[in-house]
Amino acid sequence: MSPMPYSDPRLVALYDALNPAGPDTAFYLQLAQGATRIADLGCGTGLLACALAEQGHRVTGIDPSSEMLRVARERSHGDEVTWIEGDAGALAFAGPMDLVLMTGHVAQVFLDDDAFLKTLCAARYALRNGGRIAFDSRNPAARAWEGWTKAESLRRVEVAGVGRVEVWHERSEAPAPRSSGRLRFDTHYRFESTGETLVAASELRFRGQDELADLLTKAGFGPVQWYGDWDRSGVGAANCELIAVAR
User: Fold this and answer.
1) Is 37 in the same domain as 95?
2) How many domains does the chain have?
């Protein structure tokens, strides 16, 4: 699994400002209708998990970062969610689920196919009969990484208690994701109040639709519904997302 920067409380404090609720949140909230028990695997700071709990679902949020879960517990409706520090192995102790979610491109932190397959298998065994898994991954055909330069990715956010922060990505030139499926990049965080800059190194795996479909089949899932965007449009080269929903 790719190392992620969310053990540092200074970066965790920025997460919600950089990743607010959006069309993806609305998509998953609608998808969850009719489900009683839901697991949010890689739940982060709990934005979606708490929104699901507010709708009346019984939610388990699982994440390896204790700092992310600390923020999640303090959210509105955070006391209605069962929080577990861990990975997909924790699903075995969470009880049968109607829906398992992996959102925010969590699927891409699994660099090795065997590791991702193990996670998909854990999700499959955690689902009751007729239960579903849903996750999203960036569509490699859209070549999102080409915009991961300072000039194209620079953002400025204002965070309570922190002040203004500049954030940008800088990708590695090699290996190229079109040949290896992997991309290394650095995310820079410049705190204007102190002048300090933190740099977090990350690596993601870009898998095509056929690769994802093969892994879902190996994990025991049946037919997959595919979407290319949060409006439920079909998959095409111009679509930024690969969204899978499978039973």
Assistant:
1) yes
2) 2
- Kindly state whether residues 166 and 106 are assigned to the same domain: no
- Class of residue 161 by CB neighbours under 10 A (exposed 0-12, middle 13-18, buried 19+): exposed
User: pLDDT at position 1, please?
Assistant: 62
The count of C-alpha atoms lying within 13 angstroms of the C-alpha of 8, restricted to the half-sphere facing its C-beta, is 11
Q: How many helices (H) and strands (E) does the chain have?
A: 9, 11
pLDDT value of residue 4: 58
Helix (H) or strand (E) holding 213: helix 209-218
Strand 182-191 with 127-138, pairing: unpaired
pLDDT in tens, 48-93: 999 999 999 999 999 999 999 999 999 999 999 999 999 999 999 9
Q: 238 with 208: CB under 8 angstroms?
A: no
Run of H or E including 171: strand 163-171
CB 182 within 8 A of CB 204: yes
Q: Are residues 67 and 155 in the same domain?
A: no
Looking at the fold, whether 110 and 210 belong to one and the same domain comes out as yes
68: nearest Cα among 102, 45, 90: 45
166: domain range?
141-205
pTM above 0.85, yes or no: yes
Distance CA 205, CA 183 (A): 7
Residue 2, in any domain of the structure: no
